[in-house]
Amino acid sequence: MTILSGKALLAGVIGHPVGHSLSPRLHGFWLNEHQIDGVYMPLAVTPDNFPEALRALPKMGFAGVNITVPHKVVALQTVDIIEPSAKKIGAVNTVIVGNEGRLIGANTDGYGFIENLKSGMNNSKIIGPVVVLGAGGAARAVIVSLLEEGVSEIRLLNRTRGRAEQLAQDISGHFNASIQVIDWEIRAQSLEGAGLLVNTTTLGMVGKPQLDIDLSALPKSAWVTDIVYAPLQTPLLKAAMQRGNPVVDGIGMLLHQARPGFERWFGKPVQVTTELRNFVLAGMG
Ligand code: ATR
């Protein structure tokens, strides 16, 4: 049992619903590991109450919060200072309370994605072209992080083509790179010559339909990664492994995106270790 002092540092995650969130477990591990006088709590807040609840945090002495579904985009309009990471991705997942109670909005989802990928690939170079499936909020973070890592060619496919076009247009302004939008129907052909395949859609997640894609055109050397982590081994990752492609699973994105927030709120550097990974996975039930 953790006993807090009257000076305990406060942080948490705001979402709706928030009951499924693994973040309290994840941050709780680090708080315990470093014996920090602090707490990270789940904060269930409805969309109606979100802006008011966020603005109230500095008044209650919070060091900051994570923001999750469905508040990440609205948070962009509620914070006082938008950091470049949040501006480029168009959403906020980490809020830090700065001087005079100002709310600083950052986004660490892209950082989490790329750190997980690089660590899974043993820091070998990411070779394009990269095929990205999906054009939702997660795809935005993934693409920004790939471009920042120096990837110069992205093939973007989404069931709703217009969303992919919008995303490509929004992001191209920030980078000098090619994002080619390809029809969802020809996803199997789009894999030809690719160096990396990323699924950012919700397909393959527990309770959702599977991702239906024929991998035969994908080079055997290409890496495959999935941001879905429930189940950890998605049908896509299983199919890729069966044909010999190297894969990186998605739980590490969650673990790595949490680090910058923790370090800024609680002032202690933290690491993603196998022990942490197993502890968080055990919380998935
Ligand atoms: P997030 O912000 O987590 O990325 P999202 O914005 O709801 O979530 O995006 C979910 C992604 O999964 C989208 O790319 C979505 O495609 P659409 O833009 O066409 O909706 C994709 N997706 C969800 N269900 C799908 C399905 N049955 N077939 C193909 N793509 C699907």
Could you characterize what this model shows?
The chain has 10 helices and 12 strands. Strand 5 (94-97) and strand 6 (103-106) form a beta hairpin. Helix 1 (23-33) packs across helix 9 and helix 5 (109-120) crosses helix 9. It starts with 8 loop residues before the first strand and ends with a helix. The chain has 285 residues and is α/β, with parallel strands linked by helices. It has helices at residues 23-33, 50-56, 74-78, 84-89, 109-120, 137-148, 161-172, 235-242, 251-266, 274-282; strands at residues 9-15, 38-44, 64-67, 81-82, 94-97, 103-106, 130-133, 153-158, 178-183, 196-199, 223-226, 247-248. The model has no long low-confidence stretch (mean pLDDT 97). A 6-stranded mixed beta sheet has the order 2-1-3-5-6-4, with helices on both faces. Helices cover 34% and strands 19% of the residues. The longest helix is centred in the last third of the chain and has 16 residues, at 251-266. Bound molecules: 2'-monophosphoadenosine-5'-diphosphate. 2'-monophosphoadenosine-5'-diphosphate binds at residues 134-139, 158-160, 163, 200-203, 209.
